[in-house]
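Renewal narrative, Specific Aim 1. Our central claim is that a sequence can be written position by position from structural information alone. The example that follows is taken directly from our test logs and has not been curated for this report. It begins with the C-alpha cells describing the chain, in the order in which they were read.
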C-alpha cells in the first residue's frame, strides 16, 4: 500500500516531538525526585515514563495519517516500549540508556546479514527516496552497517562512563547530528550512482 502524503512539518513534528518533549521534561525534572506508591523516582525515570506513551501515540498518528509504518519505525517503537518500560518498572535508568545500543545493533546487524547474502536490505527500505544503481546501494549499505555498529559502541561508552545529563544531550543532539553528517558525507555515492528517475 502506497504511503499517503502528509504535511512535511506535521510528519517531522510527529517523528521528533516525543524526543524533544523528553529532553525538555528531563531538563525540568533532572534535579528532583518524586515519591510514588512508596517508591522514589528521579526525574529521568519520570521523563522516560512520559516518553513511552508519547512515542506510541506519535507512531500511531503517523500510521493513521500515512497508512503505513516502516520496519525501522516498528522496531524502534518496540525497543522504546520494552527498554523504557523496564527502566520505569525496575526504577533503573540503565535499561533506557541501552536502547540506542540495541536499536543500532539491530539495524547494523540486519544490514550486515543482507550483505552476507549479497543483498542490500537498505535498498528495500529507501529505494523510493533515493534511486541508486545496485553498486551504489552495496557501498552505502556497507558504510551504514559500520556506522550503525560504531554508534552502538559509542552509546555504550558514553552512558557507562559519563553522567546522565551528558548522555541525554548525546542522545537528543549527538545521534541525530551524526546521522545527518553521515548522509551528507555520502554525496559522492549519490552523485556517482544516482539514477535519474525521468530516464
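The sequence written for that structure reads:
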Amino acid at each position: 500500500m502506497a504511503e499517503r502524503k502528509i504535511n512535511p512539518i506535521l510528519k517531522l513534528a510527529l517523528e521528533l516531538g516525543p524526543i524533544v518533549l523528553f529532553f525538555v521534561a528531563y531538563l525540568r525534572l533532572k534535579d528532583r525526585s518524586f515519591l510514588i506508591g512508596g517508591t522514589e523516582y528521579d526525574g529521568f525515570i519520570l521523563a522516560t515514563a512520559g516518553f513511552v506513551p508519547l512515542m506510541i501515540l506519535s507512531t500511531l498518528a503517523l500510521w493513521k495519517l500515512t497508512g503505513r509504518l516502516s520496519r525501522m519505525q516498528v522496531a524502534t517503537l518496540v525497543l522504546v516500549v520494552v527498554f523504557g518500560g523496564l527502566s520505569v518498572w525496575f526504577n533503573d535508568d540503565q535499561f533506557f540508556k541501552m536502547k540506542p545500543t540495541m536499536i543500532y545493533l539491530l539495524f547494523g546487524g540486519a544490514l550486515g546479514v543482507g550483505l552476507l547474502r549479497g543483498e542490500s536490505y537498505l535498498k528495500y527500505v529507501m529505494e523510493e527516496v533515493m534511486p541508486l544503481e545496485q553498486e551504489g546501494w552495496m557501498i552505502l549499505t556497507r558504510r551504514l552497517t559500520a556506522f550503525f555498529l560504531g554508534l552502538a559502541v559509542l552509546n555504550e561508552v558514553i552512558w557507562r562512563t559519563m553522567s546522565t545529563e551528558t548522555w541525554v544531550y548525546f542522545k537528543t543532539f549527538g545521534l541525530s547530528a551524526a546521522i545527518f553528517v553521515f548522509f551528507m558525507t555520502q554525496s559522492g555515492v549519490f552523485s556517482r550512482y544516482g539514477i535519474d528517475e525521468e530516464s
